[in-house]
Write a structure and sequence with these properties.
By secondary structure, this protein is mainly α. It is built from eight helices and four strands.
């Protein structure tokens, strides 16, 4: 057998399949109980070098201060550099770097130190949620081994239907693609953009909207 458009499959024990068919219902699971370490059983992390990030930010600050770069609209970081130029227009570049270096490092540390709180918020967001995991393939040997009682269980096929104003829930299914590396909150580029006011590191609320 092979996958078909509009069809999904659920691997399970034979005893579970009997209950599902008798009750015409499926159990949705809490993501906090998933057994795969890549399935939300990890804390999001940042990958960056503090000195590189700080140097990039300082260079941006100096470039806006001296007028070599145009300030980005809505960027408080650039606005601060522009304000400093208005108030103290004759500072040397070395002075601008020296006077703002500690504040930039403090901003980087604040994001790092805020990660535990973010992780707690994410866990609280996930706790009441339920997810149904389905497969696009009915003949995956690993799935048969792990979820169908070592090839002795069953696979139930679920078809997507759309008739008139009715559409089955499976139409809202989203694919899951596993990467080789553990997911991260942001890389160095993302962190720089966040501190420049050109992006944001995900919040628990944003994460909740994506689940």
């Amino acid at each position: 057998m092979s996958s078909s458009p509009g069809r999904f499959y659920k691997y399970m024990k034979a005893s579970t399949a009997k209950i599902v068919l008798e009750n015409n219902s499926l159990r949705w699971s809490s993501p906090t109980l998933f057994n795969d370490p890549f399935d939300l059983q990890f804390d999001l992390h940042l990958e960056f070098n503090s000195d590189r990030v700080a140097n990039r930010l300082l260079q941006r600050f100096v470039d806006v201060y001296t007028g070599r770069a145009q300030p980005a609209s809505g960027s408080r970081f650039d606005d601060n550099a522009k304000l400093l130029r208005v108030m103290m227009p004759d500072l040397r570049e070395e002075t601008v770097r020296k006077e703002n270096r500690s504040a930039i490092y403090a901003a980087i540390r604040a994001i790092e130190e805020g990660l535990p709180k973010l992780h707690d918020e994410l866990r609280a967001t996930l706790a009441p949620r339920k997810i149904l995991c389905l497969s696009e393939m009915p003949d995956n040997l690993l799935m048969w081994a792990h979820y169908a009682e070592n090839h002795t269980g069953a696979v139930i096929e679920l078809s997507y239907l759309e008739e008139g104003t009715y559409a089955s829930t499976w139409g809202a299914a989203k694919p899951v693609r596993y990467g080789a590396d553990m997911p991260r909150l942001a890389d160095e580029e993302g962190l720089v953009r966040t501190l420049l006011g050109q992006g944001t590191v995900a919040t628990a609320e944003q994460f909740q909207d994506s689940v």
